[in-house]
Amino acid sequence: MSQSDLCPSDLAPIALSCGEPAGVGPELAVKAAKLLAGAVPFFWIGDPRHLPSDALFEEIASPADALRIAPGALPVLRHDFAAEVRPGTPDLDNAQGVIDVIRRATALVQTGEASALCTAPIHKKVLKDGAGYAFPGHTEFLAHLGGVERVVMMLACTELRVVPVTIHIALKDVPEAFTPELLEDTIRITAADMERYWGYAHPRIAIAGLNPHAGEGGAMGTEEIDWMIPLIDRLKTQGFDLKGPMPPDTMFHGRARAGYDVALCAYHDQALIPIKTIDFSGGVNVTLGLPFIRTSPDHGTAFDIAGKGVADPSSLIAALKMAQDMAITARKAL
């Protein structure tokens, strides 16, 4: 079966974990189901009490039942929580339920009952205070559940894919954390999943320099000369299609983006500023290196607007669509 022969109904539906129930996740799930109208089959795992009072939903007994729900209604795989919810005000009693839903959703993907996992935002402090959550973030918990030590964060939209090699650390700590070993590992994980989930046999990977003007021959920093260029040259001999180190300030305009499939950046803002400028509402967070597909909307719980009906579902819809496209590509390769 070719990719063009596949359609959404050929795949298991996508599992959407509820995330923090006092945030915008529940209302966004309802909006996404209505707007997608069955074009991307998915089901929501959570407590129906946490959905908006006017939500159109239908409880299902198994993930497969999501394919039989009327278009526009949200299929709900019920998962009871300890407490009801007040939008914008998290309840620590619900923290364990959030963790359990992530675990349950991951298990459904691992068994093949779901084709991919899409995660609504969580609030890490609530989970830590309410349930002793031991992981620094969502992604680390998923890596633990997937049995892998190292994963990579990608932010993606239609026009750009970026990978920050170092992520949530202070800028002053980047030069020490940005090592040859970390960059090489990130290149290898990125290349493997670009082939597996996007179909690029030899993805063109652009690598941003750490320093302004990629060091300008050592005048503005020597990391590029000392180890980045030798590392890139060595990996090229192994078949990787690499460009760089590239000056970070000139690699994100339209003509430059046409020359690569994904850009690796040294630190958080170097990667996220361009993609959020290009597509602030439609960016998707993708975790590479897991043994299953995971996407997430690129925003937080937004407690300040939760329950007001104004939350924008664009990023969640983009995340569900990207998860479906990735699942189709992976299925094609089987």
From TrEMBL:
Cofactor note: Binds 1 divalent metal cation per subunit. Can use ions such as Zn(2+), Mg(2+) or Co(2+).
An annotated GO BP: pyridoxine biosynthetic process
Residues that hold a divalent metal cation according to the record: H168, H213, H268
Pfam families xrefs: PdxA (PF04166)
Quaternary structure, from the entry: Homodimer.
Comment field (misc): The active site is located at the dimer interface.
Protein name per the record: 4-hydroxythreonine-4-phosphate dehydrogenase
Originating species: Celeribacter ethanolicus
